[in-house]
Predict the structure.
Amino acid sequence: MDLRIQDRTAIVCGASRGLGMACARALAGEGVRVTLVARRAEALEMAADRIAEATGSRPAFVVADVGTAQGRAAVHASSAETDILVTNAGGPPIKDFTDLTLEDWERALDANLLSAVELIRTFAPGMRARRFGRIVNITSATVRMPVARLDLSTSARLALTGYVAGVARQIAEDGVTINNLLPGTIMTERLAELGATADALVARVPAGRAGKPEEFGAACAFLCSEQAAFITGQNLLVDGGLCTLTI
Ligand code: NAD
């Protein structure tokens, strides 16, 4: 399917590896002019090289921490008129709830809630004025099936889910959609780093395997397509059927 987004522009956050990079690559493959965002120039250089090799088109990049106001301002300054915005940042640490400090909470809410809220607030007005916009937030399957000990992640992402539910409807008539993509057990570097825990997680997936980052990227590209214009305010699981109770 031709997604009809060739020559559109996209900003993809948290894109030096993993799911963000997979989304960037899928969009670049559709002829979208992509800007990658992450915190380290070296990692971004490598990601841009890999995407260029795969698609023939080398993305630009911005070094920024989207968990900070300064980082978000740099992202906005780099391409204020973007057509597509993919929000994403690394997941917060896994800790027992009694060990979570106020600082842990502030960091998690900055990275996994306020980054998306603030980027949407600053990018959406231009999209509305131009009558086209696609916003995809990478959240988590924990929104549908909370995971004990992932309390920071679940809480921040549920708050973002609630925010998007309202805002998506407020801008729907202007040709701007906002959807959340919920990964579950996709084999990125982050999951692979969990070793035996990753194996145990994969064993629970009804599809019998971990998801591939490119499968997640393809879902993202579709939500950014011309054809997805009537899909907004949704939460799409990409989890191989994980979020269910099996008896
Ligand atoms: P990852 O750690 O492999 O990649 C995260 C990317 O974001 C990296 O490029 C990193 O450099 C960048 N990044 C992190 N913090 C940033 C910040 N503050 N500002 C800018 N860039 C930042 O993670 P992943 O597996 O690709 O997952 C992406 C998101 O999806 C995470 O929030 C993760 O918790 C969530 N998630 C993933 C899965 C999965 O199955 N992989 C499941 C549930 C939720």
In short: DSSP finds eight helices and seven strands in the chain. The helical segments are 18-29, 41-55, 69-78, 102-130, 151-171, 189-192, 196-203, 213-223. The pocket of nicotinamide-adenine-dinucleotide is lined by residues 13-20, 37-39, 65-67, 88-91, 111, 138, 140-141, 153, 183-186, 188-191 (CB under 6 Å).
